[in-house]
Write a structure and sequence with these properties.
The complex is a heterodimer of chains A (365) and B (828). Chain A has two domains: 93 residues; 235 residues, 2-Layer Sandwich (BirA Bifunctional Protein, domain 2). The two termini of chain A are 89 Å apart. In chain A, strand 6 and strand 7 form a beta hairpin. Helices cover 39% and strands 18% of the residues of chain A. Chain B is 26% helix and 26% strand. Chain B has 21 helices and 44 strands. In chain B, a hairpin with a 3-residue loop joins strand 7 and strand 8. Chain B is elongated and about 125 Å long. Classes of the chains: A alpha+beta (365), B alpha+beta (828). At the A-B interface, helix 5, strand 1, strand 2, helix 6 and strand 5 of A face helix 2, helix 7, helix 10, helix 12 and helix 13 of B. Chain A: This is Phenylalanine--tRNA ligase alpha subunit.
Amino acid sequence: MSGPNTDYDPVEVTPLKADQVEAMREAALAAIAAAPDLDALKQVRIDHAGDRSPIALANREIGALPPQARKDAGQRIGQARGAINQALAARQVVLEAEHEERMLAEETVDVSLPTTRRRPGGRHPITLQSELIADLFVAMGYEVAEGPVVEAEWLNFDALNLGPDHPARTMQDTFWTEPADHHVVLRTQTSPVQARTMLTRKPPIYVVCPGRVFRTDEYDATHSPMFHQVEGLVVDEGITMAHLKGTLDHFASQLFGDGITTRFRPSYFPFTEPSAEVDVKCFVCRGVESDACRTCRGEGWIEWGGCGVVNPRVLVACGVDPEVYSGFAFGMGIDRSFMFRHNLEDLRPLFEGDVRFSSAFGTEI
Amino acid sequence: MKAPLSWILDHVDVPAGTTTEEITDRLTLTGLKLEAIESPGRDITGPLVVGRVLTMEPEPQKNGKTINWCTVDVGDANGTGEPQGIVCGAHNFEPGDLVVTVLPGGVLPGGFAIGARKTYGHLSAGMICSAAELGLGDDHDGIIVLPADAGAPGEDVRPLLGLDEETIEFEINPDRAYALSIRGIAREVLVSVEGASSFRDPVLRDTPPADDAGHPVVVEDAEGCPVFVARRVSGFDPTAPTPDFMVRRITAAGMRPISLAVDVTNYVMLETGRPIHGYDADKVRGAIVVRRARDGERLKTLDGTERSLDPGDLVVTDDSGIIGLGGVMGGETTEISDSTTSVLVEAAHWDAVSMFRTGRRHRITSEAGKRNERGVDPTVCEAAADRVVELLVEHGGGQADPGVTVVGTAPTMPVIEVPGDLAARVSGMSITEEQSIACLRAVGCDVAGSATLAVTPPPWRPDLTDAQDFSEEVIRLVGYDKVPSVLPTPPSGRGLTRSQQLRRRAGRTLAGEGFVEVVNFPFVGVADLDALGLTADDPRRDLLQLSNPLSAEAGFMTSTLLPGILRAAGRNVGHGTTDVAIFETGTVTLPRHSGPAAILPVDRRPTEEEFAALDAALPAQPLHLAVVAVGDAVAGGWWGEPRPVVWSDAVEAVRSVAAALGLEVTASSVELAPWHPGRCAELSVEGEVIGHAGEVHPTVCKAFGLPKRTVAAEVDLDLLIARSVHLRQAPSFSSYPVAKEDVALVVDASVPAADVESALREGAGELLESIRLFDVFTGDQVGEGKKSLAYALRFRAPDRTLKEGEAAAARDAAVALAAERTGAVQRA
């Protein structure tokens, strides 16, 4: 078949007749359409478009035709093969889609199954509350100051205008350490950090110091020998009580909600003069007096902490010139703030370490 | 301080119609905070009237009790005027007595509703009341029998018993000691309540002049006792009862009525603020001498306690010796008794600091001491003594002796310079100088001058010593509620320090790993360290001792977080939470045994050396991190079996924190309590030991109520933070193909995998990109006492594709070095 078969009678090449080619095409298209799956289609491809398929065999016969007939026959065969291949491709797409659909259907799972392999962790709500408060002040430009919990008596008391014979020392039941003449205490307040801050920084000073403090209180629903305070200290030129009020109003609204303000009542702290107790407007009944409000017990206000203008004596002991600078300080119980913010009536769960308690707060509050 | 309202209003007038709440609201805003308003009759409603017992018939009952069937005249209070039939179980009365009768419809404290009910065969229409039933104390000895002249049957009994009396309890700050008296509170009402007027000062009275006829008194220590007034009442009837109004007021003020003589001194103390002591004059021998105690002297005080006195204590003596701890508590020998007919009245002014020290030294808290140590008006001694004498004479039937002893004079108050604009500058309000002067005068100061004011505080305000103290007086009267709200403008801040950020990061990392944070008290006892199994020479046994711990079992500051966190884990397990993973960060206390922390002066800044010495005197307080896990690390479920917690979870917890700080932790075997001796890792970063982790010793688990296989770690977080990598370099990596080589090495079981790995790493050279131990295998195939370690090695060059055989050569070099260092033999 390498050369033209001139002797061959073209009339005898039946596979190339138009009706034959048409029949091959029809048979192929029918088989393609009938192929039920990809495997069947594969066989159809072999049978009707493969090397041994009738149409492929017919194609080989083209050379046997006289030149004038080759063109027609070639065109006829080519069109038929084109149609078959097109049909194969189209059927392939359809069957693949059907196959995938079936496979995916078979892979269906019950998505309502439990998925938790590991219990979620969580941070302690007091840690979170402390960080939240620190962040509020950092956002205002404050820095977070720190100091040790086992503290020098002088820094915890004397430097803060609480001399050895100050009656206010009995207000704070102090843990003392041995030997007694070493004058070391567990800090009763975060205020020694005030003193440390003034001793180590130059004004202007804008700091908050959250931390643990200790008092010899028996452990019960509302008392703990260890609790947490946040102290704020500002020392700058021209600082007044009005700045203190503004700062605490802002603090209160950030922590408890828009419109929650503070109220000052005269009080006494040796390290501030004038001194004030700070009440925060009840964020539950919002100060609309209601005897039914459990949070403020119908008073409309909640005791929040203490504050005042830094006593010039404290400034002197800490090396700040009271003729140039003035300051304010405030201190709040973090545990207490947490308790009324989150409706906790007994503080003991804070220190019992039950994972059910802490994990309820996750990693942010 | 509890103050009956009627007593306050004896000394000041408020506009008609002013409610108690209006008064307390104002006082709260000016500095006397309301604690509570009490009224004994608050819980009693309905008819509570005077009744006269007409008849009473005792009727023995089967149960052995005898009840009285009474008829009681209650006037028209029952609507009929007919006698009321009432069954009464008490017997301490008789026909004709006036009694307290609650009629049907009344409600007694505790929600006890009274009706007419059948009992003991009678219709009992009401009840005859005891003091306890009315909430007036615990006296259950019988019903109240009213004085014969108390009132007519049917009258409301409330005013007679003071049931309608309101008592206001205030919280008194240490700088307002003057408000520990009716006098002081009435004065605050005057300056605080709008329209209040006509202050009637209880100490403003004519007192007889001092003479030489009174009881002889010598004050040897005029600084400790600047004023000593002595008066005497004789012919006093020791059986005379304390008048009802006085009993009611003393009781309402929180004190216990004792006898007329004692009650009068307490009454006058409450009224004037001046503590007063009464001696049985017949038991006082000779002249009274006031001096400091001498070493070795002793005194048995009124409370029956024998006390060794300190040379700092002020004492009152007579010829017999010490008869009282001046200003704090009297002695037993001269105590007023039920046979006392002569009373020697002492009203003395004592040095507040001495009072404070004595009270603290002897652990005495008394009403007298509370006032004396906070500071009392030194000018009122004579008036207070005179008031006592007056009341003793009036109610005890005695007569005042003519002699009046007054030793010393009240110290004068200093004049203090106060800038006229100080209150304005401190408050941020526009307060004029005139306003300031007016406020200062209102609280009793003498004010002279302008611009700079010369202010003399009143004698009852020893707390007003500094210029700034006066600004508070002005501002509180102008009103704290008027202080404007202004935000200051801080300079730009630097945010959290790196250390603060990293501490948060450590906590977040562990929370992300499934650990829950706990907070424990830092108190520990030796038994806790024993429970950890610490050896006798373990440095963690060096503890800072508390002088006054809450419990003897936890008398120290802890040196390790482990006892607290193990106990917390045990509590969780005890509560039925079987899978627990917790962590704690907290400082521990490591004594340095350095010198005392000096008490420095306060009139100047400490020097740098002094300040540094203070810090050096404190124990080291590094921040530790501890974790404990027990139970399953991964829960079982439809996905597969649970994965129990193993020793390596503790190591991994620390590694994950370290990784968050950019650090790599190496672990090596060590034996250390409280860990399992074969399962404890010493953890290091860059060669420095930062802590330990592993499985907790089974004995320790048991001691803390934990199941075996509990794991724990404790590391010094400060050390980790100090080493954390601040600026991490951006990585560069090769995009040429990777060549993978696996090797399995057999080594002695005792060879640490870390050693094999580091030998492989070193031997493989620079082409090694990573190495991972993917299997550890022991068993017959590798031989007894051996283990097989399978490593996956990845090789890559930064700048080219590796040539055929390059990776294999590097692998062989790695194996060769491992063989040399650790005796490793490559498995076929």
